[in-house]
Amino acid sequence: MFPTKADMHGIKRQEVLREAAAFFNFKGYHATSLTEIATSLGVTKAALYHYFPNKNSLLAACFEQAMEVAFASLERGRKQGKNGRDRLVLTISGYVTQLIDELNCCVVLMEEQALEPGDRAKLVRQRDRFERSLRALVKEGIEDGSVVPCDPKLAIFVILGAMNWVAKWFKPSGAWTPAQLTLALSQIFERALSSTPAAALPRDVGELPVAGSHQTVRPVSPGKRVLTFSGPSQGVRNKKK
What we know:
The protein is mainly α. It contains 8 helices and no strands. Helices cover 58% and strands 0% of the residues.
């Protein structure tokens, strides 16, 4: 079945979002122009207006997708975890995986002041709800004995701060695969909160034997990209400048 016109619009809109998020993460919102994004995609600046009316709407859409990823990871963690600690770690690992997956367009959640007041208020509500949900998992873990007694608010602030910064420093050309990094971070967070912490952590993240780590899934960084009608299965890959 051939994709419909609406399907193609959605595919191209997502491609614009991915490239915008790459630039916002790499250069920052204010240092990025729509012209740069359009040039990287191989289209005119005017073409972007078919999908987003302005740069701020692009940023708002990136935040919206980031929060969708966060809550989807939370739902999976709740369903699959056997105790509070497991649910928290599964949520964290799912979220980090999506943050550094080039098929998504999560932007570092540190540009909220650039949003319009209405969009910023919406983001704050969603972010606070996500944080409260994570704190609840820590409390569950304390109650069921899987998490060491601690201040859930501080624990989640530390974890979120570390997670949201990953997209800033993780590079596609580095020695670690996304799967290895996700596992290593999860192990660190789990050991910090576990009532029965592991005796040691990996000495070399690059040597972690992670299933699927041979795959070429990489985090996005801005580079030459062509906006096409090929669909997601044939989408081009970013190349770092």
